[in-house]
Amino acid sequence: MALSDSVTTCLSQPVHYAICKLGFEKKEAYDINNILSGNGEVCWQAVTEHVCYLESDQSVDYFKSIRSLGPVCESVNLYFKSLTKEQFVIQYASWFHWTNCTEVFLEVFDVLQYAQATEVALGLMKLTSCLERALGDVYLLKGNDCPFLLRDLLASEQLADVFGQAVMNVLRVFIGSPHGLNLRNVLWHGFASPQEIPTKYCAMLLFLTAGLGQLLQTYLLQTKGVLVHRPYVIFISLEELDAFPDLNNEILSIAEELVKLSSFVLKIMSPFWMAALTAFKQSRYADSVILLLPQLEVGLRLLFTTSNKCPNRLLTAESSALYTTFDEMLAKHLDNEEVNQLPVVLEEPAMASDFLWDFLNHQEGPRIRDRLSHGEINLETFPREVANQIVGFAITILCRFSDEDMFSLKEHMVIKPLMNCASRYRSRFHPISRLKKQVLECMKSIHLWPELPTVPEEQVQKIGGLEGNAEADTLILMISEIISQLQHYMPQNCCSSDDPINSVLTERLLVGLCDTRICTLYSPRPVLEVVAILRRISAQCHQVSQQVIAGAGLRYTQWVNKTLRSRQRHNYRRMLNRL
Fold first, then answer.
1. Are 288 and 368 spatial neighbours (Cβ–Cβ below 8 Å)?
2. SS3 of 77, please?
3. With contact defined as beta carbons under 8 Å apart, do 304 and 313 qualify?
4. How far is 531 from 528, CA to CA, in rounded Å?
5. Phi and psi at residue 398, to the nearest 5°
6. Residue from 441, 460, 472, 450 nearest 579 by CA
7. Which residues fall within 8 angstroms of residue 511, CB to CB, at 6 or more apart?
8. What's the rounded Cα separation, in Å, for the pair 411 and 404?
9. How far apart are CA 563 and CA 569, in angstroms?
10. DSSP string, 414-443
11. Which class for 227: exposed (0-12), middle (13-18), buried (19 or more C-beta within 10 A)?
12. What is the pTM of this model?
């Protein structure tokens, strides 16, 4: 039996117990009216009474708090199921406005009515993402730099000042603390299967979000404050992300077959994969990517733990240790300094790692997982182009880890182009790749100089002092010497020995140089430091070129209109002579 079939859970025993059992131990029913006022507002004092504290230091006793809140969550779940959509909208929709994504929370209510496990997990991931973003906006009412990590945000004095420490402790039982249920992290990092997330916890977080809206409204009225929502991140230059061809239903149907057969997919997680492909077909692109990213992580974690002989790392670690995430799996060395064997297992290590680094990690890349999970992207307008790349990459990984008897599917006429694109993939957002892009953009700018408008040559008097410029002659000699030393690195037939300086600026040579494949994976620090310097130089060169173009255009217009003063005319002639 394949390991992917034999794994029954990715939750360690204590985490599995906390999420799946602890909140069900108290059997008595809880009266919803204890925490709900007549007008539907949350009675926070009654809720906070269920949070227990350690006698030793008065910190939250998460174990007892989860057990105590279990019946409350079930009561809230049953209460929401008793409401019609219209009743819920009338009663609660306005309390979600503070999140700036009311529709997401209304969708979660719809999900609760049917309690389909995969949809509940998806709803919870979207809810926690939007809630985190909204809490960050509230934080900025009182602070400057919003914490990046949810656990730090929930533990902040700023949010405690707005909502009260007792309220924040309730939230931390469910999300943000590795000692609590930690629902956001176990889902976003691919540890929980659909059946392991109780619906009642999703219902409770929906209820608490409405309650936070009520508290915030009171706070803003008292302080006369205004909540400002940070703008969403917008993906620009989508063509830079274009790695795989457009996916059609035929490809997606084959992908569904691969999900059933690929050893990359844990059997307990296959509903997430199928739901992701369905979401893509239905043009729900954010949903598709949200479902898929954690599954790429858990699939790679399976390969990582197998290839590095550390099977225990497949499970969530305890709160005292970090669990294995993308960052560690893509690193060159393990935390014990041994070489990471995952790249060896991947048939095209550079391709897979480059793609993942590009889309998830590089600072100038889209950083899709971070931005989705922290609520920085508008889910309703998530671009198909981005989802197409993530799904396309996932399909190639499914193919690579399918049995040999799946050869017919791998060689299928619609799958083959995907595999070819994968094998040719080169990093687009590594600093070296960005340097290449900068150099080519600078070259294009400089090549516009001959096309600049210029006055007739007979009107340009030769300016004395330009010929035989000692400084310029020295620079030319220096550049010639540098180029001669680099000659054997140049593509053939691209550089003239008669005029080495101008030939370096030829489009053919620079395109040829920038097309040279350079391994970007695990670049040493000295290389990155040199690249950073070269990027600053390139940026300055480009800026100078743009200034020349703008200045030449302006001076030409002034020349034609005869509005240049004597010194300006002299400087303009001087510039034309130099050009």
1. no
2. helix
3. yes
4. 5
5. -60, -40
6. 450
7. 440
8. 11
9. 9
10. TTHHHHHHHHH---SSSHHHHHHHHHHHHH
11. middle
12. 0.89
Identify whether the C-beta of residue 243 lies closer than 8 Å to the C-beta of residue 127: no
Quick check: helix, strand or coil at residue 14? helix
3-class secondary structure, 30: coil
Rounded Cα distance between 328 and 189, Å, is 13
Kindly state the tokens that stand for 181. 């249920």
Q: Which of 370, 561, 521, 368 is nearest to 431 (CA)?
A: 521
Beta carbons of 268 and 399 less than 8 angstroms apart: no
Q: Which amino acid is residue 274, in one-letter code?
A: M
Whole-number Å distance between alpha carbons of 419 and 393 = 9
Helix/strand/coil percentages in the chain, nearest 5: 65, 0, 35
**DSSP, residue by residue, 337-378:** SPBP-HHHHSSSHHHHHHHHIIIII-TTS--HHHHHHTT-S-
Which amino acid appears at position 437 of this protein?
Answer: K
Amino acid identity at 256? E
Tokens representing residue 358 in the block: 């590009």
**What are the backbone dihedrals phi and psi of residue 251, each rounded to the nearest 5 degrees, phi first?**
-65, -45
Are 4 and 266 a contacting pair, CB within 8 Å?
yes
> Phi and psi dihedrals of 507, rounded to 5?
-60, -40
Both tokens of residue 393? 């990459």
Give CA–CA dist 491/483, Å, rounded.
13
Residue 211 CA: distances (Å) to CA of 42, 44, 132, 258, 569: 5, 8, 15, 44, 71
Tokens of 269: 């997680």
Question: pLDDT tens digits, the chain, 579 residues: what are they?
Answer: 466 778 899 999 999 999 999 999 999 889 999 999 888 899 999 999 999 999 888 899 999 999 999 999 999 999 999 999 999 999 999 999 999 999 999 999 999 999 899 999 999 999 999 999 999 999 999 988 999 999 999 999 999 999 999 999 999 999 989 999 999 999 999 999 999 999 999 999 999 999 999 999 999 999 999 999 999 999 988 889 999 999 999 999 999 999 998 999 999 999 999 999 999 999 999 999 999 999 999 999 988 888 888 877 777 655 544 456 777 787 888 878 888 888 778 766 567 888 988 999 899 999 999 999 999 999 999 999 999 999 999 999 999 888 765 556 666 788 888 988 988 899 999 999 999 999 999 999 998 988 888 888 777 665 554 455 677 778 878 888 887 787 777 777 666 666 656 666 577 788 888 888 888 888 899 999 999 999 999 999 999 999 999 999 999 999 889 898 989 888 888 888 777
List residues bridging with 36 in a β-sheet: 42
Residue 71: half-sphere exposure toward Cβ, Cα within 13 Å: 13
The helix (H) or strand (E) run that includes residue 321 is none
Element (H, E) at 257: helix 249-261
